[in-house]
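Quick illustration for those who missed Monday's session on complexes.
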Amino acid sequence: MKEKLLTGIGFDVHRLIKGRKLILGGMEIPYHKGLLGHSDGDVLSHAISDAILTAAGLNDIGVLFPDTNPEYKNISSIIILNQVLKLITKKHLKLVNISAVLICEAPKLNPYFPEIKKNLARVLGLTPEKIGLSAKTTETLIFNPRKEAIAALAISLLRG
Ligand code: MG
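Prediction with magnesium ion bound:
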């Protein structure tokens, strides 16, 4: 049978507030604010999860892991990513690579990319080189001028 390649895109945004840990790609980032969410608010893992799910033609994490379900309260988004991988494996699909952009005015995220890549690679069964990460501000324009949120965009490639 001919091999097929599938791409998917995911987007997410969470509010930054005091009194929460900042978790991105399953790693804790030192900062005086964290992302608000029903889960741990890991905007990067959420965008990546949706990129993988939509490539496979599956529902997004809002449908699969609804924030109305108390079971998912404060859940680590790495657990969500694990379940997403199980779902695509069931469809005989394999993740090839991920590329993601984090959009925020603060904190500076690039110094943490090696660690985040290593962690995501372990979870996703990829080598760190297959995880592309970049960070962008919007020059305090368009999005988030008061540093109140972090957004993430991700794309995935699946092979099946
Ligand atoms: Mg989310």
